[in-house]
Each structure stands twice: as C-alpha cells, then as structure tokens.
Amino acid sequence: MPLHAYLSIFSEDFLIDPKKLLKKKSQKTIIEVITKLNIKPNKWKEYLVNYPFLFFISFQTITENIEKTIKLLGINKETYVKAALKQPSLFYRSPNTINRNVENAAKLLGINKETYVQAALKYPTLFTLSPNTINVKFDLYNMFIEESPENILNSLLDYPIYFAYAPERIMASYVISKLAGIQLRWDILKNNPNSFAKKILSPDRYQNIFEPLYGYFRKLFERRRKIKRKVGNVEGEVKAIRSHAQRIIEYFGSKEQISLTEEQIQKITELAQKIKNKKFRKESK
Q1: Cβ atoms of residues 239 and 165 within 8 Å
Q2: Using an 8 Å Cβ cutoff, are 272 and 213 in contact?
Q3: What is the CA radius of gyration of the chain?
Q4: How far is it, in rounded angstroms, from Cα 113 to Cα 116?
Q5: Is residue 178 pLDDT above 70, yes or no?
Q6: How many CB atoms lie within 10 A of CB 41?
Q7: Number of CB atoms found within 10 A of residue 78's CB
Q8: Confidence of residue 236 (pLDDT cuts 50, 70, 90)
Q9: Which one, of 218, 180, 186, lies nearest residue 199 by Cα?
Q10: C-beta of residue 3 within 8 angstroms of C-beta of residue 62
Q11: 44-71 as b/e, with b when 16 or more CB fall inside 10 Å?
Q12: How many beta carbons lie within 10 A of that of residue 136, not counting itself?
C-alpha cells in the first residue's frame, strides 16, 4: 500500500531545485518522501535541514513505527500523523522510547498516561522531552509561581508549550517580576524576556541589573546544553537547573514576597556589577 494511502493524506506536486537536495538521495526519492508525508511547499526545505534522517529511512520503517506507537499510546493513526507532521522526528523515533517518555513523565507528574498523551498532542515536542526535563520544569514553576501545585499542573497541561520553555527564560521572567514588584504570572512567561524587561522596568534596573543577569543566564545554560549534548548527562543538567533556581530565590526572595527590600536590591546590584565586570565567574569557581 502506498504511504500516502496508508496515512490517509493527499499528495501534492512540487517544483524542486535538484542542486539543493541532499546528495546521497535522488531527486525522485526525496520528492516521494515530501509528497507522501504531505509536507507543505513552504516547509520541505526546513524538513531537509532540520530532519534529514527522515529522508534516509524506508517507508516500511515509518509505517511500522506509526503502527506500534499508536498501539502503545492508545490513539488513532490520523491523530498521531497530525502530531508527527508538527514534530517530524516522531516518524523515526523508537516507539518504545516515545512510550517510555510518556509513561515516566506522567508518573513523575502524578497523572495518568492518557492525560499526558492528550497534552502532548497539543504540543508534540512533549513526546520527545525526557521525563526529568518535564519534571524539573514543573519544579521551577512551583518555585516561582504563587499558585497551588494542582493549578500549576492544570495550566501546564492546558498550555503544554510551557514545558518546553528554556530554564533561562523561566528564571528571567521571575527576575523581571521581582524587579517590577509584581508576582510572576503565566501571561508574563509568554513574552520575550528581554523585550518585556525593556517595556516594564526602569532604564536603570534594566541596564544595570536585568541585562547583565539575563546575559549570564543565557551563556550559562547554553554552555550546559553543549556539555549535555556531548556527554548526555541529563541528571547533572537537572541538578544544575534546580541549584541555579534556588540561588535566584536566595537573591530575589520567595514567590510569596512581592517587593524587594533595600538590602536585596543592593545585593542584587552588586551581583550584576560583578557579572558586568566579569568577576563573578572567577569568584564562583
């Protein structure tokens, strides 16, 4: 059975420049992959760049992966294919790995498997995130947002993209809320931290406190992500995230505290100045 018939999707015709295609595959083969997976004309180049492995596996493997995955997750083929078109790595990831991610993440969050699957279908990247990553994001929100754990979990399941926010984005949003004298809310997290800080903070607090701190967060976690990609130490990464979050609370206060004290502001300003002068890393070693 042709793959497009199996997937119950329509194929399309494309005009493709063969010079820009992957050298190890023929133009005919790549067009077949694109049409049978119903990749839209404005998306196929992005797929070639970001998911090249998709064009080097057999259609039989793809169909077998789909069949096994939908059985393990308890969903229908059409639903899963729609999710995989948003997150193409799902076409070739191991069904057992996907299922293990789902079961372990659900267990850590204290919810059933079906509930987690429904959240992941809203934002398919969740199928690919490690359970430890999911759990540490839940911990961060509990540390920073003044809501009950139950309400926080419900918000995450309703808008699961929050699980994918980088730790530096979450921490920066908390810092902004503290410097602005407000409690961190979900709508604040949806903003780009730097743009929102410029908008809501005074020029002095933005330039002398937030900007150096946010720059430090970004460099720190980018460096840690490179290390994780090399050695695959997820547990070490999770431990580091929790450690840095706790340090932020030591400087900026707990989620229950709204206004910073003069002593806290002075301490935070001194920290930001050390970062600007590149002394903080030396003293932290």
Answers
A1: no
A2: yes
A3: 22
A4: 5
A5: yes
A6: 12
A7: 12
A8: confident
A9: 180
A10: yes
A11: beebbeeeeebbeeebeebbebbeebbe
A12: 21
What are the residue ranges spanned by the domains of the chain? 3-123, 130-284
CB atoms within 10 A of CB 84: 23
Confirm whether pTM is higher than 0.85: no
Single-letter code of the amino acid located at 190: K
Q: Judge contact between 214 and 179, C-beta under 8 A.
A: no
Average pLDDT over residues 54-65: 74
Q: Please, which residues have CB within 8 angstroms of residue 221's CB and are 6 or more apart in sequence?
A: 166, 167, 168
Q: CA distances (Å), 229 to each of 42, 66, 102, 234, 238, in order?
A: 30, 27, 21, 9, 14
Between residues 264 and 44, which one has the greater pLDDT?
264
Q: How far is CA 248 from CA 164, 201, 231, in A?
A: 20, 18, 27
For residue 251, the number of C-alpha atoms closer than 13 Å in the C-beta half-sphere is 20
pLDDT at 23 over 50: no
Backbone phi, then psi, for 184, in 5-degree steps? -65, 130
What is the 3 state secondary structure string of the chain?
CCHHHHCCCCCCCCCCCHHHCCCCCCHHHHHHHHHHCCCCCCCHHHHHHHCHHHHHCCHHHHHHHHHHHHHHHCCCHHHHHHHHHHCHHHHCCCHHHHHHHHHHHHHHHCCCHHHHHHHHHHCHHHHCCCHHHHHHHHHHHHHHCCCCHHHHHHHHHHCHHHHHCCHHHHHHHHHHHHHHCCCCCHHHHCCCHHHHHHHHCCHHHHHHHHHHHHHHHHHHHHHHHHHHHHHCCHHHHHHHHHHHHHHHHHHHCCCCCCCCCHHHHHHHHHHHHHHHCCCHHHHHC
